[in-house]
Amino acid sequence: MLSESDLRILSALNTPASISELSESTGYSISYVSERISDLEELELVAVSREGRSKKVRALPTKLLENYKDLTSRHPHLDFPSLISPSMLQVCWFLDKPTDVNHITSKLELQRRRIYLLLEKLQTRGFITKRKNKYLITDRMSGIVRFAQTVIQYEHQHRSDSSIPGSRVIWSSPHESLIIPAEEYTDNILDKPGWYLTGLPLFSDYDLNFFATRPTYFYTDLRDRLTPVDIISHTLIVEADNRNLSYCALLMVSENISSEDLKSASLYYDIEETMEALVTFVETKGETTSDELPEWQEFKSLAKQYGVIL
Q1: What do you get for the CA distance between the two ends of the chain, in Å?
Q2: How far apart are CA 280 and CA 275, in angstroms?
Q3: What does pTM read for this prediction?
Q4: In this structure, what are the phi and psi dihedrals at residue 65, rounded to the nearest 5 degrees?
């Protein structure tokens, strides 16, 4: 993930500059700048060209750089490179909605004490509020969260492009992402550590065999299996249409999945409204529904077809 030195180098690239010029403007040694430029070039954040005997470095136009420039221009008095460490970016990813430390700890490879220290740093500066043990970014500093989420999405997309060319990351968190491959992709990504098949193809593990037009993959370095709650969440992120909602309702009923578990997961996956509609549809037996959900009689027929007892 981007380091303080990476951000200082990117900040210095308002115009193309040589390695020695970047060394002078940032205070880092020429060898260290060269090392960081190689990594930034690998991430496709900068491009290096040769002009005579020297190399010129220029920043590439990316959403990541755009968000960073917007953040620094709105708060020119703040030294963001010293504030936004990789660990801080990971914690900030969660702060666009009220979040407690237990939830953050469960999704990061950081010690609880470290998370508390990072939150305290943000709270001391007035960047976040704390109410009933839940932390939330202030409106004034919401750009930090947007930048953190952009960096994390960008790095997941870069990893995905390296493993599955032409793929698209449709959701990501600091350590996990959901990926739709290009139509022509045929290699077996599942041979690589951390990659899992998810979505509709996995419903067959629960005796619900549905046709899936294209596989969906989940990358994680936090866990070694997916639960039915994850599979439902991933299916709804891909598309929360009548078909997918019906199938997810079937899996919820057949596996007796707790509505609280589904609602908790929806906060992480950012699908609260969709999950609430699904849970309410099942719990009220279709009395409370929406345009995307089926009629209850239609759902009963589907359940009977798959041998699911309502």
Answers
A1: 47
A2: 8
A3: 0.90
A4: -65, -40
Q: Is the dihedral of CA 224, 228, 230, 231 positive or negative?
A: positive
- 199, 238 in Cβ contact below 8 A? yes
- Residue 176 near residue 222, CB atoms below 8 Å: yes
Q: What angle do CA 143, 148, 149 make, to 5 degrees?
A: 100
Residue whose pair of structure tokens reads 């708060």 in the numeric block: 75
pLDDT in tens, 176-226: 999 999 876 656 788 889 999 999 999 999 999 988 778 899 999 999 999
CA distance 119 to 219: 27
Exposure string of 261-286, with b = 16+ CB inside 10 Å and e = fewer, is ebeebbebbebeebbebbbbbbeeeb
Domains, the chain, in order of start with CATH, read 4-59 (1.10.10.10), 63-147 (1.10.10.10), 171-305 (no CATH)
